[in-house]
Amino acid sequence: MPNIAIPFDNTYARDLPGFYAACQPERAPTPALLYFNHELAEELRLGLAGHDAPALAAMFSGNALPAGAMPIAQAYAGHQFGSFSPQLGDGRALLIGEVIDRYGRRRDIALKGSGRTPFSRRGDGKAAVGPMLREVLVGEAMHALGIPTTRALAVVASGAPVRRETLLPGAILTRIAASHLRVGTFEYFAAHGTTAMVRQLADYAIARHDPDLVDSPQRYADFLRAVAERQAALLAQWMHAGFIHGVMNTDNMGIPGETIDYGPCAFMEAYDPRTVFSSIDAGGRYAYAAQPDIARWNLARLAEALLPLIDTSEGRAIEAASEVLDAFPERYHQHWLAGLRAKLGLGGELQEEADAALGESWLDLLHAQGVDYTLAWRRLADAATGNEAPLRALFAAPQGLERWLERWRARCAAADAAMTHDGPPAELRAQRMRRVNPWLIARNQRVEEALEAAERGELAPFEQLLAALRRPYDEDPALARYAEPASDAFMADFRTYCGT
Ligand code: AMP
Ligand code: MG
Prior knowledge:
Elements: H1 11-15, E1 20-22, E2 32-36, H2 38-43, H3 53-60, E3 72-74, E4 78-80, E5 83-85, E6 93-100, E7 106-112, E8 127-128, H4 129-144, E9 151-163, E10 167-177, H5 183-192, H6 195-209, H7 219-241, E11 243-244, E12 266-267, H8 291-310, H9 314-344, H10 352-369, H11 373-383, H12 389-392, H13 399-417, H14 426-436, H15 444-455, H16 460-469, H17 480-483, H18 488-493
Antiparallel strand pairs: 1-3, 2-9, 4-5, 6-7, 7-10, 8-10, 9-10, 11-12
Helix pairs in contact: 4-15, 4-16, 5-8, 6-8, 7-8, 7-9, 8-9, 9-10, 9-14, 10-13, 11-14, 15-16
The structure holds adenosine monophosphate (AMP) and magnesium ion (MG).
């Protein structure tokens, strides 16, 4: 019996019949709460303070859904590794409802791993403890870095095993998202539905994510542009953090511009633009450096689905959509450049080509010597105050670094001189740089260790790592082992799996 009420307002279920299948979660035999984010629950105004762990476990396993929940599996399609899968949908996820958070934002609450749905195909609808806690660690690390992302509210161990290569403990994750609308949602209704359905979906998405476009005469082209703009900004943030999503299929690209679907993702350590971690991405389609181009490719699939709405003349629709897609690389570049200048500590006047070239040659240097990406940026902030030894220690052959540092210092001095007031002193530059160049990322070796312990029932390493990841910009000697690069031996074999 549901005994707890959450103030749901389920617009997707109410306004879009025919876009989902109503479906109940499977019963978890012995639900046990592994993780719960009370702060996020308060942000969402769920009114759950005072409920104990067993009550929360019952609720977020799906066993005792709160009153007002309307569990549905959403329909979507998607291009996976370049080829179209017309029938995906929530095979192991259920949207249970929407709430308005403390800031007035509508947020989805969804279960992942709650059992089979009409979209499960041959899957079991389940998820395992390790990959769900991994989603918590990486997602919360992204959030702490200021990168838009879906977030984990809860992880509940189900008490039932899931069969993968071996038997693993099962779990249900509760995922919070600005919405679960994906590029693939549009592709599904463009492939199976009618233009009227695609329009209904687009109107829903516009009202929810781009309400200022509702009255625009060319709102569907504008909507495409707004989605593209969010992706351009998001991708620039991923690239600056060294984040590799791993499966940028169109069903994993969200309309709200949040990072979604933490499967075989990971943070790069030694800088190499061709880095791939995913065990299923042998061809390197979703390698680090490929991500901005893949985002544009995915947006082209969204554009195709929207074409009949953009203009009744196909020629004119293609022209309007192409304009957005053609502008994407430059939009991305502008976001990337702004982020790059902040990471380099450059204030003052923008020197577009010179600053981009300075950043590119820095990255070339890191690549040539396989330097740890995160630590190099962080130690560059120290170098701003003249403390260059920690940076030099990262380089096997420091000559190239010396030449580059000279260019950088000259550019910093020029940027300072160009400012109307006195240039910021070195310490101020270093502080600004430390606010954008994290000391801590979710390092793969530490994540794997924490998850292995959790699978044995020992949650302390997971909790300690999570606490550290929540403060990525604070250098704390007590947490030094989380900041260390993994050994070469670990990275040589490191692969991430899809988390299914
Ligand atoms: P993902 O790789 O998590 O983005 O999932 C791709 C598609 O496969 C989505 O339609 C998922 O719902 C579905 N899927 C993934 N794992 C499972 C599973 N264990 N059971 C059923 N469907 C799944
Ligand atoms: Mg997915």
